[in-house]
Q: What sequence folds into this?
């Protein structure tokens, strides 16, 4: 059996946070125990306006900083957009691409997400590619079909585990307090692992981190993070408070 990937606990702050929120980041950074630092990677993805300040504040700590989206192009006449190069320049090391909120509200297709993942690589960022079914798709029994198609369309074929993370976020579990059963999470994560084998080949398959996201809280973190093929979490609401985020990450030290 190959060695398990190093876990990643990532916070997606979405459209939350003003400059004083750097205190939350400092609280997270100072709350990381030596044991946790040893066992898992921590990442905070604030809004783009805070990436630079957060990256400065996190320097030397166990916490890395990421963006929440990027444009596929490096530069150009794209008013309001931010390139992967700009995020890297501001101190980001990761970028989330294809979050369901981007797919839904900005009509991003798998092809768009694929292009953004390539942009992340070009800029030296790790791409966190998000996939996940809607409630209607789950009720129609289409979870595996939907997630496989998203993966095949969104993950660049020659990605390595060093530049790619996949996040499974069932849309109906985001911000709702609902979570799939551990059996359902295990089934989808096993499917993702198998699909990654087909897309990337056997050498990378087992090394890519597959995160679970959707209503992860300190109270359910141990249960969710112990599911086979769950290599960490992508946390929304509970990443906005240092104690909650650290409480989730402490699943790796308990
Ligand atoms: P919640 O943890 O608030 O459900 O959000 C999950 C998410 O969308 C993270 O990207």
A:
């Amino acid at each position: 059996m190959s060695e398990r990937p190093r876990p990643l606990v990532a916070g997606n702050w979405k459209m939350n946070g003003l400059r004083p929120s750097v205190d939350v980041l400092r609280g997270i950074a100072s709350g990381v125990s030596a044991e946790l630092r040893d066992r898992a990677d921590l990442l905070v993805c604030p809004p783009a306006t805070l990436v630079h300040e957060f990256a400065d504040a996190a320097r030397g700590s166990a916490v890395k900083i990421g963006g929440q989206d990027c444009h596929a192009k490096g530069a150009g006449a794209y008013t309001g957009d931010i390139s992967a190069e700009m995020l890297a320049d501001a101190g980001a090391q990761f970028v989330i691409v294809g979050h369901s909120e981007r797919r839904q509200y900005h009509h991003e297709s798998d092809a768009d997400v694929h292009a953004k993942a390539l942009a992340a690589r070009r800029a030296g960022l790790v791409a966190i590619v998000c996939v996940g079914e809607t409630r209607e798709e789950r009720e129609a029994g289409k979870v595996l079909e939907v997630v496989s198609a998203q993966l095949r369309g969104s993950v660049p074929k020659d990605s390595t585990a060093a530049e790619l993370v996949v996040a499974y976020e069932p849309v109906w579990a985001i911000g709702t307090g609902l979570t799939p059963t551990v059996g359902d999470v295990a089934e989808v994560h096993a499917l993702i692992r198998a699909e990654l084998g087909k897309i990337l080949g056997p050498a990378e398959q087992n090394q890519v981190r597959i995160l679970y996201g959707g209503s992860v809280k300190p109270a359910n973190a141990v249960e969710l993070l112990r599911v086979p093929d769950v290599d960490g979490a992508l946390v929304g609401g509970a990443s906005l408070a240092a104690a909650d985020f650290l409480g989730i990450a402490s699943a790796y030290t308990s």
